[in-house]
Amino acid sequence: MQIKPTFGDWRAAQDVHKRFSRKIGSAHIATQFALRHLSSVLRTTEIRSVLEFGAGIGNISYFLLRNLPGNVKIECTEHSDFCRAQLLHNIPSEFYERLIIHETKTPTLKKQFDLVIVDGSLSRDAHFLGDGSICFVEGSRNVARDMIQHSLAERGLICDFVNYTPRRRIVWRMTRFHIPRPALKAVKGCWIGRVTAIPCSNASSRARKGATPSARTDLHRTHAGSVARQLVLANAMVELGGSVSSPIMPISD
């Protein structure tokens, strides 16, 4: 899923980040870079339902409430008593009726959401994502993304995550001799993807047509798992500084 933030997205992200960077517990809030890309998603996609894992002190929750239509409610999880207290303190009271807070890490939710934001712990299956859902991962969170891919593969789905990484910043660090020297500092980025059905090769399609219902299910899961493994491997190569020279193609089982 390709995202191109505009100047308006940059301004919206800057305003919210500046507002929350001065608050108690702001050490791990979403970066301006991530908020810019989230703003672009909200601007270009119709979002009617949102689930946020790990609301923290509320900077992403506030950003969503501020930029989504007034009839859209935000469901979020936050198990920390401190963060929940700060969340309610930081969110204006006029937004309370649109904010649903789950006090457990993995609430039991049977519905699927248009937008799922991963900024904390999440359940072991991705039942909250359906065909067409958008998943926004703040930071890298490799384990969470791998879990999402494998869970989706069991249902014949896959998330086309794209890694958006900002340029590294130059900072000055003191050596043991108290001499300043320049160093590169990594800045958190984000991963954004849309859930789609896994494309099946002609061979796999023919095999499924002649198989029993149970055999077709096993075949589809095997095929889905092979594609998910390829995508996880490609993501790992990108994070290690490598590149994928050719598009990932489904493996015919």
Architecture overview:
By secondary structure, the protein is of the alpha/beta class. It folds into 2 domains: 7-197, Vaccinia Virus protein VP39 (Rossmann fold); 200-253, no CATH class. 37% of the residues lie in helices and 19% in strands. It contains 7 helices and 10 strands. Strands 1, 2, 3, 4, 5, 6, 7 and 10 form an 8-stranded mixed sheet that branches. Residues 202-222 and 242-253 have low confidence and may be disordered.
What is the straight-line distance between the termini? 27 Å
CATH architecture assignment of the largest domain: 3-Layer(aba) Sandwich
Mass-distribution shape:
globular
Radius of gyration: 20 Å
Q: Fraction of residues in helices?
A: 25-40%
How many domains would you count in the coordinates? 2
> For the record, what is the CATH homologous superfamily label of the largest domain?
Vaccinia Virus protein VP39
Q: Give the rounded overall mean pLDDT.
A: 81
The biggest beta sheet is recorded as: 8 strands, mixed
Count every helix, treating DSSP H or I runs of 4 or more residues as helices.
7
Low-confidence runs = 202-222, 242-253
Give the SSE string: HHEHEHEEEHEEEEEHH
Tell me the strand percentage band.
Answer: 15-25%
The number of E-state strands comes to 10
